[in-house]
Specification:
Layout: H1 19-28, H2 31-38, H3 43-57, H4 60-63, E1 68-75, E2 86-93, E3 96-100, E4 110-115, H5 116-123, H6 129-134, E5 138-142, H7 144-149
Parallel strand pairs: 1-4
Antiparallel strand pairs: 1-2, 2-3, 4-5
Protein name: SCP-2 sterol transfer family protein
Length: about 160
């Protein structure tokens, strides 16, 4: 793969990038560049790819018999005024993780809200949930114990 400075993120096929490579890309990019990427037209494509892979990185043995709905709200700070946040829901139940690419009428046990750059850092193993929470870059509403253990339910790549 090209050096990060030469990488054309807008044209990158994120579906063809392995999780470990994605983690390396996110780690090597300055926050400003990640924010630019996630403020552009490829934002939803990147988010869809990340959420679309969650079921493949899910560790059912770690989740046990837990049944939980998690709502993720990825904020649009920096995007055009009036733009809507992106909302996804993950449902963990019966040893599976299913993703809905929108808000439903169901009541989540946990809601997580963060800007897109922080979300990419979190899911790529380049940031920790507690650090984001304590620096007020991650808002948690609901089951705080579930929030604290959520990263153990997924095989998060090591950058």
């Amino acid at each position: 793969m090209a050096a990060l400075g030469d990488l054309d993120l807008e044209a990158l096929d994120f579906g063809a990038v392995a999780p470990q490579e994605f983690a390396r890309i996110v780690k090597g990019l300055p926050g400003r560049r990640i924010a630019e990427l996630m403020a552009g037209p490829q934002r939803r494509r990147v988010l869809d790819e990340v959420f679309g892979r969650m079921h493949t990185l899910f560790k059912p043995e770690a989740a046990g018999d837990r049944d939980a709905l998690i709502r993720w709200r990825i904020t649009v700070s920096g995007l055009e005024p009036g733009a809507d946040d992106d909302v996804y829901e993950t449902h963990i139940a019966a040893g599976t993780c299913t993703v809905t690419p929108e808000r439903t009428d169901r009541t989540p046990q946990l809601s997580l809200t963060m800007a897109a750059p922080e979300f990419l850092r979190l899911v790529s193993g380049n940031a920790s949930g507690p650090t984001l929470f304590f620096t007020r870059k991650l808002k948690v509403n609901g089951d705080i114990r579930l929030a604290g253990g959520l990263t153990y339910f997924f095989d998060i790549p090591k950058p």
